[in-house]
Amino acid sequence: DTGVSQDPRHKITKRGQNVTFRCDPISEHNRLYWYRQTLGQGPEFLTYFQNEAQLEKSRLLSDRFSAERPKGSFSTLEIQRTEQGDSAMYLCASSLGNSPLHFGNGTRLTVT
Amino acid sequence: LAKTTQPISMDSYEGQEVNITCSHNNIATNDYITWYQQFPSQGPRFIIQGYKTKVTNEVASLFIPADRKSSTLSLPRVSLSDTAVYYCLVGDQIQGAQKLVFGQGTRLTINP
Prior knowledge:
The complex is a heterodimer of chains A (112) and B (112). Chain A is mainly beta and 112 residues long. Helices cover 0% and strands 50% of the residues of chain A.
């Protein structure tokens, strides 16, 4: 179990730029989740994949956000035309079925 | 979705037993209670999960009374490294983790 890996750990970008984050889940886990966490708050659910299928998206996920999980392995989260309000920690988690979530250590995004 | 209420913060000392109580008055029949721990700049980490009565693992114990409207996470003989935010989540295992809602959590500070 090598854990959930996220890349990069930190990203600073200028408003209006596009950014992409990557998540490598635990290899045998079929479910993958993206969360966003701002300072002092708990993680907020963004979207969820079972294998390669994106099964649910939160209303928080505006049309500037897109997530993919090709071949049911790693996942990417892209934010287009970033805004200062997008500054947050973006967390990825994976699970095998309904087992508890295993989280990565997140990508901290700062939009200047 | 079952809403949870837990103290915003707690303080204790090394070697003490710490009990964090979570209220979930509208817990549903199929809901499980799950606790996560989060250190700064890391993703949450699963601690313990239960449905009723008592569950114990190498890290903590979870006490759930018969009416299941609350639960108590018990950390025996805490150390400085137990300083973290602790989240109580309530949800249906079958519906999946995307239905779980993280609140603000309890910020536990352990003093020497």
